[in-house]
């Protein structure tokens, strides 16, 4: 007898791949002046495919008993590899932001943040979000322990607290964006900042949806005291977004606003570089002279 489950034919992998590809193509069309409704249409398709695929997966594993130990092992590896790919995704943006701070362009006066951009203070809303995510991870660990001990109501309570804290994160992130002194169009600092924090917010939203599904499944008594792939996958993903925010707060908010003021050229690494002396000259210019210099540099 094969240790692998033999499931029936499923249309969801094919439909999901085409929905995601169509969403990416519609976004490119929107960038070139297309209509935004096409993106919303593909987002609805992705949501429908995700719901149908998750429904079939829950039926196969919970009710049909198709998840053998080998299948569970493969699912664990797939979740871990998916999280690893997300780590590589965020590392690319961290590298871009680090390069911006360590080697800032001389068109912006060799400064990071560039002149005219007031960075967000790390001890304001970003630190509040850091505390919220750390506390939510603690509550999620408590809920996991309660589930393993068979304490149904206590597990439900701490999982609800985790979701409430995630809503606090979205509230704080909205107020931070609405009160920021710069936008995504304000130099490479604004683009990397909003790409990092925005994609992280999207991942928090996805993690909240997974935890919400786990809350519903827990209310239906679909989890047992052993290893549950759906539950632990959501826990691992939530800890991942928590660790990413620790990195964002450390490098983007704290180091980006306190330690990355002058960058590479100020730390004495390239004192003999001719660009270093050009940057020292740019620091002595007024705002009008600096704008005139940029216009002459890029007519």
Automatic annotation (TrEMBL):
<keyword id="KW-0496">Mitochondrion</keyword>
<feature type="transmembrane region" description="Helical">
    <location>
        <begin position="75"/>
        <end position="98"/>
    </location>
</feature>
<dbReference type="GO" id="GO:0004129">
    <property type="term" value="F:cytochrome-c oxidase activity"/>
</dbReference>
<dbReference type="InterPro" id="IPR013833">
    <property type="entry name" value="Cyt_c_oxidase_su3_a-hlx"/>
</dbReference>
<feature type="transmembrane region" description="Helical">
    <location>
        <begin position="124"/>
        <end position="143"/>
    </location>
</feature>
<feature type="transmembrane region" description="Helical">
    <location>
        <begin position="155"/>
        <end position="174"/>
    </location>
</feature>
<keyword id="KW-1278">Translocase</keyword>
<feature type="transmembrane region" description="Helical">
    <location>
        <begin position="236"/>
        <end position="256"/>
    </location>
</feature>
<dbReference type="GO" id="GO:0016020">
    <property type="term" value="C:membrane"/>
</dbReference>
<protein>
    <recommendedName>
        <fullName>Cytochrome c oxidase subunit 3</fullName>
    </recommendedName>
</protein>
<dbReference type="InterPro" id="IPR024791">
    <property type="entry name" value="Cyt_c/ubiquinol_Oxase_su3"/>
</dbReference>
<dbReference type="GO" id="GO:0005739">
    <property type="term" value="C:mitochondrion"/>
</dbReference>
<dbReference type="InterPro" id="IPR033945">
    <property type="entry name" value="Cyt_c_oxase_su3_dom"/>
</dbReference>
<keyword id="KW-1133">Transmembrane helix</keyword>
<dbReference type="Pfam" id="PF00510">
    <property type="entry name" value="COX3"/>
</dbReference>
<feature type="transmembrane region" description="Helical">
    <location>
        <begin position="38"/>
        <end position="54"/>
    </location>
</feature>
<comment type="function">
    <text>Component of the cytochrome c oxidase, the last enzyme in the mitochondrial electron transport chain which drives oxidative phosphorylation. The respiratory chain contains 3 multisubunit complexes succinate dehydrogenase (complex II, CII), ubiquinol-cytochrome c oxidoreductase (cytochrome b-c1 complex, complex III, CIII) and cytochrome c oxidase (complex IV, CIV), that cooperate to transfer electrons derived from NADH and succinate to molecular oxygen, creating an electrochemical gradient over the inner membrane that drives transmembrane transport and the ATP synthase.</text>
</comment>
<dbReference type="InterPro" id="IPR000298">
    <property type="entry name" value="Cyt_c_oxidase-like_su3"/>
</dbReference>
<feature type="transmembrane region" description="Helical">
    <location>
        <begin position="194"/>
        <end position="216"/>
    </location>
</feature>
<keyword id="KW-0472">Membrane</keyword>
<feature type="domain" description="Heme-copper oxidase subunit III family profile">
    <location>
        <begin position="1"/>
        <end position="257"/>
    </location>
</feature>
<dbReference type="InterPro" id="IPR035973">
    <property type="entry name" value="Cyt_c_oxidase_su3-like_sf"/>
</dbReference>
<comment type="similarity">
    <text>Belongs to the cytochrome c oxidase subunit 3 family.</text>
</comment>
<keyword id="KW-0812">Transmembrane</keyword>
<feature type="transmembrane region" description="Helical">
    <location>
        <begin position="12"/>
        <end position="32"/>
    </location>
</feature>
<dbReference type="GO" id="GO:0006123">
    <property type="term" value="P:mitochondrial electron transport, cytochrome c to oxygen"/>
</dbReference>
């Amino acid at each position: 007898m094969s240790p692998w489950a033999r499931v029936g034919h499923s249309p969801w992998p094919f439909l999901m791949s085409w929905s995601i590809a169509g969403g990416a193509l519609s976004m490119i069309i929107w960038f070139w002046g297309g209509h935004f409704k096409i993106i919303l249409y593909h987002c609805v398709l992705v949501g429908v495919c995700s719901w149908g695929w998750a429904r079939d997966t829950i039926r196969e594993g919970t009710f049909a008993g198709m998840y053998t130990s080998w299948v569970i092992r493969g699912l664990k590896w797939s979740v871990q590899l998916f999280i690893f790919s997300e780590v590589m995704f965020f590392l690319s943006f961290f590298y871009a932001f680090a390069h911006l701070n360590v080697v800032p362009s001389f068109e912006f006066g060799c400064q990071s943040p560039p002149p005219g951009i007031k960075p967000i203070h790390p001890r304001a809303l970003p630190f509040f979000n850091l505390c919220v995510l750390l506390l939510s991870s603690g509550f999620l660990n408590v809920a996991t322990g309660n589930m393993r001990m068979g304490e149904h109501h206590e597990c439900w309570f701490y999982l609800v607290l985790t979701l409430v804290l995630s809503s606090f994160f979205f509230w704080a992130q909205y107020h931070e964006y609405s009160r920021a002194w710069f936008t995504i169009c304000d130099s490479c600092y604004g683009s990397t900042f909003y790409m990092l924090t925005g994609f992280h917010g999207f991942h928090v939203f996805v993690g909240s949806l997974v935890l919400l599904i786990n809350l519903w499944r827990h209310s239906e008594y679909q989890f047992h005291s052993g290893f549950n792939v759906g539950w632990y996958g959501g826990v691992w993903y939530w800890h991942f977004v928590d660790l990413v925010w620790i990195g964002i707060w450390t490098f983007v908010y704290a180091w980006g606003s306190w330690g990355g003021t002058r960058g590479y050229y100020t730390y004495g690494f390239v004192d003999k570089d001719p660009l270093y002396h050009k940057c020292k000259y740019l620091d002595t210019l007024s705002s009008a002279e600096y704008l005139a210099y940029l216009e002459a540099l890029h007519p």
